[in-house]
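Troubleshooting log. The previous run stalled partway through. Resubmitting the same two chains, unchanged.
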Amino acid sequence: AQSVSQHNHHVILSEAASLELGCNYSYGGTVNLFWYVQYPGQHLQLLLKYFSGDPLVKGIKGFEAEFIKSKFSFNLRKPSVQWSDTAEYFCAVNFGGGADGLTFGKGTHLIIQP
Amino acid sequence: NAGVTQTPKFQVLKTGQSMTLQCAQDMNHEYMSWYRQDPGMGLRLIHYSVGAGITDQGEVPNGYNVSRSTTEDFPLRLLSAAPSQTSVYFCASSYSPSSTDTQYFGPGTRLTVL
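Second attempt completed without errors. Output:
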């Protein structure tokens, strides 16, 4: 069965540190890839998405992600984090391009210390 | 636009009770879906709808019913609540069933079944 793995469940960084959150999926066919963020007390918001073209995609708030097809990966990066980036981050994948929704990873809880 | 709205925000049920979680969107989106979020599990798809009158099952549909009589509304019914259904429920919508469309999430309903 298709699955999405996020390797880091809890990450603690200091402000200005660089961030990379891993996301891998298990499926050899067409995929559409998303990163969502859930700030404390808020609902999920889209950070960025990839479905074709340049494998390096840029999203909101300085985030970017790179799709590496050979590694089945879609890692999220930010060069310099801020305290306001404290949130839960979810990688999500649509497998096969169908209408049957997204498969989410278990999430990474990111805490930025001032 | 109010976006995606959900009611209630919190609910406590006793085992065996039934209830309906409401979801509405005012963006004229075709596609709507329900997810549940459990600690350490990420979000899992319960049911989805690609348009009025059309619904289908997701990954974890047992114990839940849905209907889509209008474009705007997509209620989720718990027929006979069980403690295993204690979770946070999110409704989402997107403009079309296209797998590349951004899904917009509601604020969630936190349900506890005693």
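Takeaways: The mean pLDDT of chain B is 94. Chain B has no helices and eleven strands.
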